[in-house]
Write a structure and sequence with these properties.
Blueprint lengths: L2 H29 L7 H8 L13 H24 L5 H18 L1 H10 L10 H14 L8 H21 L5 H15 L4 H7 L11
Length: 212
Amino acid sequence: MTAEPVARNRVDRRRERTRNALLGAARKFLSEGRSAVSIQEITDAADVGFGSFYNHFESKEQLFDEAVRSALQVYSEMRDVIVSLYDDPAEVFAVSFRMTGRLQRQVPEIVRVVLNSGMSIMLRDEGLAPRARRDIIAAQEAGRFEPMDPDMAVMAAGGSLLGLLQLLDARPDVDGGKLSDEMTFHVLRMFGMNKRAAQKLTSTELPPLPQM
C-alpha cells in the first residue's frame, strides 16, 4: 500500500524537473532575444525529449509566456522580501526601483527576459506593474506623490526603468547602483517630490539583495 504514493511522487518530481528545464531553456532564449527558435531547439537546449514538451505546454507561445511569468515571479519574491521592511509608500516605490536596477548586475539573464519583453511587461497582471501601481496610488493618497493617472504613472515609471536596464546592460563598466539611484531620483521628481525628499530616498543604504 505504500509503494503507490512513492512512485507517484517520483513521477511528479521527474515532471517538475522536465518543466523547469523547459522554462530555463526558454528564459535563456528570451534573454538572448531569440524568440523565433523551434520547439526542437528548445527541447534540445533543455536536454529533454521532443515529445515531453506537450506534456507541459500546448505551444511555444505558452511556454514563453510562462517563462516571462516565472522571471517576474523571481523578481517579485525578492522585491517583496525587501520592501516589507518599509512603511512609507514613496520609499517602497523608491527602494523597488533602486533594487531593480541593481538586479541587472546580479541576475542579468532574468533582467534581459524583462528587457526583451519590452513595454508590454507593464501591462501584465503580475510582477512589476501591479506592484508599482499599488505603491504609486498609496504614495499619492499619502500626499507623497502629486496626483496623476495611475496607469500613465506606471507606464512613465516603466519606460524609465526599462531605459535604465537597457543602459546598464549596454554598459557593464558603469556603477549600476549609482546610475539606478540617479534614475530613481528623476522619477521621484517627475512624480512631484521635491529635490530634498527625493535625494533622501535615493541616498539611504539598501538592505542586501536576497541571493538567487
